[in-house]
Amino acid sequence: MKQFKLSSKRKSSGQVVVLLIIVLALLGGAWWWLNSNKENAAREGTGFAKEAFQKIAVQHDANFFNSRLSPQARMNFPASAQQEFMNEIVKLGAPVRPVDVQGKIEFNSQFFEPHGSFHARIYYPARYADMDLTISHPVGRWQIDEVAFVPQREQPAPAPVPAAPPPPPAAPAPQSPPASPAARLHRNPHLHLQLHLVKRSQRCTSHRGSG
């Protein structure tokens, strides 16, 4: 009788262990499946965001823009607003650099309702523009919930630098007044001697004439 009870206990404990192994295996499989789906969703969402930047800002694809707007975004962006939005982008021309998209996908309750916010600064020939995009994946496919495109303000052309005025003409060098006879005699003693001899000669001539 004791042997029968022991064997039944071993059998029931063995069943419990097997059941626990099955439960753990199911939980592990579910965890792996959730993580795998999360990674795939994050990869797909990032790829969709990059595609949206290319289609809208580079290729100016109005059909893609319209078809990927969420119902609420389509109410905020009627057909006329969509056309005006695309025209503003087309006016800037083609980007001169590759578009570098920054952002990430996040999840509600860690695994569900993926959504993300992305940003890029797009450089066009004359100026750059900042573009922001919010996306989500409620049912079936990724969609655009919000989009903003803000071009840089146009910079005014610099005013021409005025030419420097010509320098004023140089002032003439001051001329010294003519030297007085006394100064000339002081500078040249030979001239003083000559004048003395002339005066002496004139006096001798006058005395001879009077005699």
CATH architecture of the domain at 14-151: Roll
Structural class, please? alpha+beta
Number of helices: 6
User: What is the straight-line distance between the termini?
Assistant: 199 Å
The portion of residues forming beta strands comes to 15-25%
What is the global morphology?
A: elongated
Global Rg: 52 Å
Largest sheet: 4 strands, antiparallel
The CATH class name of the domain at 14-151 reads Alpha Beta
Q: Could you say what the CATH topology of the domain at 14-151 is called? A: Nuclear Transport Factor 2, Chain: A
SSE string, helices as H and strands as E = HHHHEEEEHH
Mean pLDDT: 79
**Helix percent band:** 40-55%
Number of strand elements? 4
Poorly predicted segments:
none
Side-by-side strand order of the widest sheet: 1-2-3-4
Quick structural gist:
With 211 residues, the protein is of the alpha+beta class. It has 6 helices and 4 strands.
